[in-house]
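STRUCTURE:
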C-alpha cells in the first residue's frame, strides 16, 4: 500500500498492511537520528516511515517551521510575535498585545495580505502528493492563538471579562482563521484538515468546560466547518486532559483526535477508544514522559503492542504517534522498538536510509 492508501484505509477501519505512522521528533532527536542514519535531517521523517506529510500555514509555522541555527537567534512573525530559539525550540520573547489598551486591541490587524505567502509553505509537498497523505495545519486556531498575541494570563483575563473590544478582536481572529483555511482548502488537494489549540494541562482543562463551550467552541466550529463542507476529515490537536469536551468536539465535526496524552486524567487511550471509537479515529498515545525515555526495550514493545491492539479493536481508526515530540534523551533502541511493533523494523529503516543516500 502507498502511505496515502494506508492512512485512508486505517481511518475507514479497513485492512492495512501495517499501522500508519506520523511521528514528531524534537529537533535534537532529529539530529541524533540523522547522524545515525547518515542522512540529512529533512529526510528523517520519511526514512523512519511517516505516512503523513503536512506543513504549518498559520502561527505554528513561526514556532516550528522557522529553524534557527543556534540558541539566541530569533525573528518577528507576521502577527508581531517575537520569537527566540531556546534549547532548540523557538519560544515567545514578546507578545504584541500584552498590556494593550482597548484602543490598541481595536487597532490590531491580522495579516490577511500575507495569506498567499503563508500558504506557499504547502508547495514543498507537491512531490509527495500522489503517494503520501497530505495535510494542512492551520493551528493554533482559537484560544492558543489569542495567548500568543496577548500572553496567556492577559488572554485568559480578556476572555473571562469579554469586553467589547475583545469580542471584536475574537471575531476578527476567527474571520482570519476561516479565510486562511478556506484558501488552503481551495488551493491544495488535501487529505485532511488539521486544526488545534492546547486547552488542556496535566491535571485537566485550562478553563472550565462551560467557559470553553461559551467562548471557544463557536469559533472552533466555524473553522471545523471549512473542512467539513469539503468532505475532509477534520483533525484536532490539544495536549492535556480534555476529556470533558470530547463530546463537544464530535458534535462540531471532529474526526481525528491527537495526541492522546495518556498520563493526564481521563485520557487513557483504551478508555477513549471504548467510549468514543464509534465517532473518532485517534493519533498518538505513546507516552513520551515515562515510557520512551525511561522504559526498557521490552517495556516499550509491550506498551506499544497493547496500545495498537486497543486502538484497532474495531479493525482500525488509529495512527501510531507519540503523545508529544520524542525527546532527545530517548534511547534510540526504544524508538526502534516502538517502530518494530508498528511493522517497521530497524533493518527496514536502515535500508530506507541507504536508498535516501543514493
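SEQUENCE:
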Amino acid at each position: 500500500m502507498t502511505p496515502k492508501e494506508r492512512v485512508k484505509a486505517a481511518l475507514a477501519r479497513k485492512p492495512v498492511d501495517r499501522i500508519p505512522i506520523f511521528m514528531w521528533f524534537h529537533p535534537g532527536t532529529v539530529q541524533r537520528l540523522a547522524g545515525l542514519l547518515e542522512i540529512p535531517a529533512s529526510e528523517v521523517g520519511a526514512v523512519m516511515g511517516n505516512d503523513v506529510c503536512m506543513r504549518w500555514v498559520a502561527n505554528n509555522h513561526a514556532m516550528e517551521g522557522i529553524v534557527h541555527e543556534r540558541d539566541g537567534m530569533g525573528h518577528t512573525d507576521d502577527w508581531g510575535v517575537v520569537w527566540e530559539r531556546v534549547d532548540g525550540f523557538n519560544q515567545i520573547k514578546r507578545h504584541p498585545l500584552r498590556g494593550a489598551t482597548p484602543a490598541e486591541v481595536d487597532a490590531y490587524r491580522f495579516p490577511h495580505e500575507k495569506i498567499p505567502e503563508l500558504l506557499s509553505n504547502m508547495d514543498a509537498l507537491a512531490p509527495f502528493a500522489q503517494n503520501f497523505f497530505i495535510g494542512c495545519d492551520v493551528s493554533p486556531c482559537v484560544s492558543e492563538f489569542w495567548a500568543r498575541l496577548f500572553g496567556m494570563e492577559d488572554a485568559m483575563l480578556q476572555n473571562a471579562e469579554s469586553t467589547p473590544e475583545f469580542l471584536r478582536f475574537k471575531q476578527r481572529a476567527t474571520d482570519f482563521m476561516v479565510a486562511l483555511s478556506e484558501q488552503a482548502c481551495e488551493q491544495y488537494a488535501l487529505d485532511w484538515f488539521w486544526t488545534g489549540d492546547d486547552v488542556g494541562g496535566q491535571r485537566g482543562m485550562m478553563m472550565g468546560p462551560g467557559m470553553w463551550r461559551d467562548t471557544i467552541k463557536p469559533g472552533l466550529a466555524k473553522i471545523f466547518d471549512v473542512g467539513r463542507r469539503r468532505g475532509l476529515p477534520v483533525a484536532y490537536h490539544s495536549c492535556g486532559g480534555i476529556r470533558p469536551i470530547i463530546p463537544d468536539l464530535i458534535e462540531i465535526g471532529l474526526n481525528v483526535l491527537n495526541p492522546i496524552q495518556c498520563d493526564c486524567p481521563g485520557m487513557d487511550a483504551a478508555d477513549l477508544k471504548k467510549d468514543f471509537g464509534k465517532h473518532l479515529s485517534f493519533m498518538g498515545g505513546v507516552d513520551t514522559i515515562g515510557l520512551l525515555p525511561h522504559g526498557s526495550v521490552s517495556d516499550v514493545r509491550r506498551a506499544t503492542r497493547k496500545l495498537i491492539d486497543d486502538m484497532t479493536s474495531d479493525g482500525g481508526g488509529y495512527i501510531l504517534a507519540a503523545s508529544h515530540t520524542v525527546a532527545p534523551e530517548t534511547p534510540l533502541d526504544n524508538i526502534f522498538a516502538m517502530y518494530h511493533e508498528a511493522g517497521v523494523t530497524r533493518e527496514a529503516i536502515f535500508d530506507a536510509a541507504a536508498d535516501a543516500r543514493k
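REMARK: The chain has a mean pLDDT of 96.
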